[in-house]
């Protein structure tokens, strides 16, 4: 699955942060939000998409759970694009 993740904004700290952004799949961009937790038990990210995005992904032939899983994995791995001026160190453990 060719999925690109771009972060628009991060509010929070290394312990917990709310993330908003856009992921692109097959040239189509979709908004998402996520809550990232760190520290106890390691990194964990819960991403959410709207019902309209879910419907569009199904129409495109994708399994919604697989897309969300891939999105979450890329967020955990740091396989993302950040806006200018934002550094991973400001919200993620180094």
Strand order in the sheet with the most strands: 1-2-3-4
Give the SSE order as H and E letters: EEEEHH
For the record, give the distance between the C-alpha atoms at the N and C termini, rounded to a whole number. Answer: 27 Å
Please report the total strand number as a whole number.
4
> What oligomeric assembly is this protein in?
single chain
Please report which band the strand proportion falls in: under 5%, 5-15%, 15-25%, 25-35%, 35-45% or over 45%: 35-45%
What's the overall average pLDDT, rounded? Answer: 87
From the spread of the alpha carbons, the general shape counts as: globular
How many helices does DSSP assign? 2
Instruction: Indicate the structural class.
Output: alpha+beta
Cα-based radius of gyration, to the nearest Å: 13 Å
Number of domains: 1
Low-confidence stretches are none
Please outline the major beta sheet. 4 strands, antiparallel
Helix content class? 10-25%
